Amino acid sequence: MDIVILVGVLSAGIRLSMAIAFAALGETVAQRAGVLNVGIEGIMLLGAFLSVLGSVWTGSPWGGVALAMLGGLALAAIHGFFAIVLRVDQIVSGIALVVLGLGFSGFGYRLTFVAGRASIPSFGPVPLGPLAELPIIGPVLFNQNVLVYLGVIIAIALAVALRRTGLGLELRAIGENPAAADAAGITVAARRFGAVLFGGAMAGLGGAYLAIGQIHSFVENMVAGRGFIAIACVVFGRWRPVGVLAAAIGFGIAEALEIRLQTWYPQIPYQFFVMLPYLLAVVALVFVARGSAMPKALGKPYSPLR
């Protein structure tokens, strides 16, 4: 592969991966605490719409990010109430979020934006000085938008927090054995609810990145399965934030390569290339999941001892 093409694929792969990465990092924390949220897709959709709305209202993409994360918190709170407080099936509650996110985002967009006439403030590339001029790695790593850099920082911070802080150790204990954590004086429900809220805010940030950091627009159902891929990335990364980020980047590179394959082989139906990254994710998930040590209490409701 020509070096220019390689640099282009890697750079685009990182850009394409971050919407998934944000959602996957948030889901990693929630799953470490024992709560599964399959409603990430709906939260990302709502976050994408709210980010566009907030950017237009405030005139700044950061306003869009803030509103998207608030929307993610709201939907996550619904999931937390049903899954943690009422202890209903977590998958059923998550699927309801997908429907809610799809409905709210589509209806809200049609209500507030007529034919997409509004100008949308968005994030652009932020070169990091001389680092962006380095051969090969410069354009790939140091010529991205600010949310990409933020995603890397969050992944590293979460990796340290989950392994080195008291709160991180408590979340891991809750995900493995909530009864033992409860007996040790840890408030299981409160910790789980906080983890779910964090996951929702991160999924909202992922939707915001997709809309105002990558596509610079909103289209109904634009998330297109990335929320479910984010859940797969959590498994690929074995519930470790840096591994989860690497898995998301791998999917982003596959998506970037898929776009180029469509231009290289126009005689092949484009649907085949569009399918490849998702097929790769499913196949890899089958093999990786066999050896994955998931949190033992993941997806299981818990009744407090007191």
Concise description?
The protein is mainly alpha-helical. The protein has twelve helices and no strands.
Radius of gyration using CA atoms only? 19 Å
Beta percentage is under 5%
Distance between the termini: 62 Å
The portion of residues assigned to helices is: over 70%
What's the mean pLDDT score?
Answer: 89
Low-confidence stretches: none
Structural class category: mainly alpha
Order of helices and strands: HHHHHHHHHHHH
Morphology call: globular
Total helices: the number is: 12
Number of strands: 0
The biggest beta sheet reads: none
SSE inventory with pairings:
Blueprint: H1 3-32, H2 40-58, H3 61-85, H4 90-112, H5 137-141, H6 146-164, H7 166-176, H8 178-183, H9 188-215, H10 226-236, H11 241-264, H12 270-290
Helix pairs in contact: 1-6, 1-9, 1-10, 1-11, 2-3, 2-4, 2-9, 2-10, 3-4, 3-9, 6-7, 6-11, 10-11, 10-12, 11-12
Can you give a write-up of this model?
It is a single chain. This protein has 306 residues and is an all-alpha fold. It has helices at 3-32, 40-58, 61-85, 90-112, 137-141, 146-164, 166-176, 178-183, 188-215, 226-236, 241-264, 270-290. The longest helix is centred in the N-terminal third of the chain and has 30 residues, at 3-32. It is globular and about 60 Å long. The protein starts with a helix and ends in a 16-residue tail after the last helix. The model has no long low-confidence stretch (mean pLDDT 89).
What keyword list fits this structure?
306 residues, single chain, 12 helices, mainly alpha
